[in-house]
Specification:
255 residues, alpha/beta, TIM Barrel, binds 1,3-dihydroxyacetonephosphate
Amino acid sequence: MSRKPIIVGNWKMHNDVAQTRQLLGDLHARLGGIAEVDVGVAPPFTSLMLASELLADNRILLSAQNVHYAEEGAFTGEISPKMLASIGVDMVIVGHSERRQFFAESDEMINLKIKAALSSGLMVIVCVGETLEEREAGRTMQRVGSQVRSALAGVDAADMRKVVLAYEPIWAIGTGRTATPAQAQAVHEALRKEVEQLFDEGVAGRLRIQYGGSVKPSNAASLLSEPDIDGALVGGASLNAEDFEQIVLAARPWI
Ligand code: 13P
C-alpha cells in the first residue's frame, strides 16, 4: 500500500514571532506548493496565530506541540483542542518524550489528549520511543508496543485516518546519534503489526509512521527509503529552511 510521506518540523521551544515570520516566509517560498509530500510545522503556541495567517494560502500543515484533554475549564496555562482548531491548527503532537520526561505526562493522560484532539477534528502525531537502557536490555518492542496500545485505547478505527505515529528513540533525539535505517525499519514494521492487531490490516496499511531522532539532510533519504518509514518528525534540522527543504525533498517517492 502506498502512503503519502509526511514530514513535520517540531520547532520545540524555538523561534519568537519575528523568527517565525522569517522562517515561514522562507519555507513558503521553498515548499508552499509541494503536493507529493505532506509538510507540516509545529511552532510554539505564541507563534501559532501568526503561522496560521501566514500559511493560510499554501499547503503547509500547522501543528501544535501539545494540547490539553478538556474542552475548557480551570486548567491554568493549558490550551484546549477546540481553541487550536478555532485558529486553523490542523494537527497536534502528543506524547513527545520531552513531555513524558520533563512534564510527567502519563500514558493515560496521553490517551485522553489523543481522543480529545481527534474529536475536535485535529490530526494527531502520536510519539513513542524507548530509552537507551530499554534498547540495550532488549525491551524496545515491549516499551513502544505498550505505549501504542495505551495511546490508541478507545480510538475509533475511522479516526485512525487522522493519526500519524512517530517512532522517536529517546537516545537519538538531539544527540546526533540516529537509529540506523535497519534499526528504525524493524521497529516501524513491528509497530504496524501492533496496530494491525489493535485494528485491522486496512488501518495498519494506511497508517503513516514517521521516524524522529537526529534526522538531517545527510541521513533522510536512507531512512525514508525503508518500506515502513513514511516520514520524519524533525527537530533541530527543521529550524533551518534549507535543511528542512532537503529532508522534504528526500521524501519524494520518485527519488
Ligand atoms: P532532533 O531532530 O533534534 O533530534 O529532534 C527529534 C525530535 O524530538 C522531533 O520531535
